[in-house]
Amino acid sequence: MKSRFTLLIFFTLYMSSFAADPVDIKSILSGVTVYLNGARISRVADVTVPKGNTAFRFSDLPANLDDQSIQVKGEGNFVILSIVHETNYLSRQRKSSMHKMLEDSLKIYEDQLAWISSYKDILNSEENMLYANQVIGSKDKGLVLNDLKLAVDYYRTRLSEIKKEEIKLSRQAIETTEKKERIKNQLDVLNVKLSEPTSDVLVNVSADKPVTGNLQISYTVYEAGWVPAYDVRAKDIQNPVHLFYNAKVYQNTGEDWNKVLLKLSTADPRQSGVKPDLQPWFLDFMQPVIYSRQYNTVTLHTSMDAEVAAAPMEVKKSEATLAAGYVSVNENQTNLEFAIKIPYDVPSDNKQYTINIQDLTLPATYEYYCAPKLDRDAFLLARITGWEDYNLLSGEMNLFFEDTYVGKSQLDVRNTKDTLDLSLGRDKSIVVTRVKMKDFTSEKVIGSNKKETRAWEITIRNNKKQSVDLKIEDQLPVSMNKDIEISGLDYSGGALNKETGLITWRQKIEPSVEKKLRVSFEVKYPKDRVVYLE
Is 38 left (phi over 0), alpha (psi -120 to 50) or beta? Predict the structure, then answer.
């Protein structure tokens, strides 16, 4: 009983030491580590700690920060006793720079509409005045024909000008109203977010005497991240490939990152760190299940009009240089980290800001490729080896050849082999045809079997002024049933993969030279069955 009473007194005294209102401290952004999904925010605040126990409050932090990720440390002769995270429903979110910019734009459009309305009133008053003063001549002189003509010309000219102005103003009013409504709708979305709560973090400290120092807080938010993307540039087929490794950084955390030193990490805090547990694999007999086949159409959508903005740099030089020169790469135990030595501004607007983090020169060999069964054009390929030494991530690639944009591709580091093949576009100077040879196409019935023969002729002509190395691929069908027998009759010395039926030729074709290749095969199967052959 005595021990319980003593514990209650101690707890009461401990809590009473923090009964005073917390001291609000102003923190500044000291650093951001952006993960593939999420970001680690660091803030620092100078504090003056009186003697005894004091509670300091970091306020206006993102409402959706991960409270399990909060870490606080400090510099100074004091002790950090405890950390408490609170949700603040009374404090409004801070307005972002985008929010303020939209409010300014809305005010401009409202002023324009007010001016249009006032100018239309002026024109309307002038028009009424013209209608009210149409009496020409006087009682003494009567109507003078010349005065009538001058008056009619003036009225017609001025009224026409007024009508034109009114039409112009009406059109401007419609356009300005549409712009105003778009801005207002966007502001309505942001204003809803302003009404959301914020986070407060209370840090309780104790000091034996008054001291000065600082408190440093870090926390993780998930409305941020970065996406790897690449620009691949080849000057010509005699030079290596330049690969620009870019990071598209975005965030919608509710607080702008102004003049902050960024670090980009390949880690993913949302990915589970729990090791897998392999369970026993049990086998048993089961009844066969017949599934109906379903066909799914997958469409790849490439967003060409996504808002991508280059993040503004704080350092200006007389001659433009790449940001990659200011990036250091640190290889940790489980991830890579790109530390950028130039401060960046990344507003909380969910736009992607492209930052160049590496500029790599990769040796490449060039060859042409064609699969005439699928496409008659020849494609120039840059074949890159050793790319895996650069710790690249899967991402979209923009391809440029001879300073011309030739399209997009995808780098998939999980499936790419030792050699990375990049397509640099079509070359119309290499003409390829694939024609079925009717004289070698036949169908015969022999006993209980049916034999079909097919043959194609591939013709390649090099209209370029220099020789080219060309890789051509075609195929033989592959049997999936023992009753279907396939034999290749002719494939012009190409390399045949019997498992896949793929035929590969590598040809060096001189300028203005034409080469022919032939593919023919025979298929035998029971005559009462049907096999589709093109």
Answer: left
Chain-centroid distance, C-alpha 497: 39
CA–CA separation, 290 and 311 (whole Å): 55
Bridge partners, 31 (sequence order): 42
Asked if residues 346 and 260 have their Cβ atoms less than 8 Å apart, the reply is: yes
Q: What is the DSSP string of 65-85?
A: -EEEEEEEEEESS-EEEEEEE
State pLDDT tens for residues 449-470.
888 899 999 999 999 888 889 9
pLDDT tens, 350-370? 889 999 988 888 888 889 999
- Alpha-carbon gap, residue 93 to 255, rounded angstroms: 9
Claim: this prediction has a pTM higher than 0.70:
no
Residue-wise pLDDT tens digits, 65-114 = 999 999 999 999 999 999 999 888 776 666 667 777 888 888 888 888 88
- Reference 102, options 195, 223, 191, 173; nearest CA is 191
Task: List residues bridging with 205 in a β-sheet.
Answer: 54, 80
> Could you write out the DSSP letters of every residue in 4-60?
HHHHHHHHHHHHHTT-SPPEEE--EEEEEEE-SS-EEEEEEEEEEEPSEEEEEEEEE
Q: 253, 228, 244: which is closest to 94 by C-alpha?
A: 253
**What one-character-per-residue DSSP string does 323-380 give?**
GGGGEEEEE-SS-EEEEE-S-EEE-SS--EEEEEEEEEEE-EEEEEEE-TTT-SSEEE
Tokens describing residue 477: 């069908």
Q: What b/e string do you get for 482-518 counting C-beta neighbours within 10 Å, with b at 16 or more? A: eeeeeebeebbebeeeeeebbbebebebeeeeebebb
- Residue count (the chain): 534
- Residues with Cβ within 8 Å of 151's Cβ and at least 6 positions away in sequence, in order, are 136
Residues 6 or more apart whose Cβ sits within 8 Å of residue 310: 353, 354, 355
- Quick one: the chain helix, strand, coil %, rounded to 5? 20, 45, 35
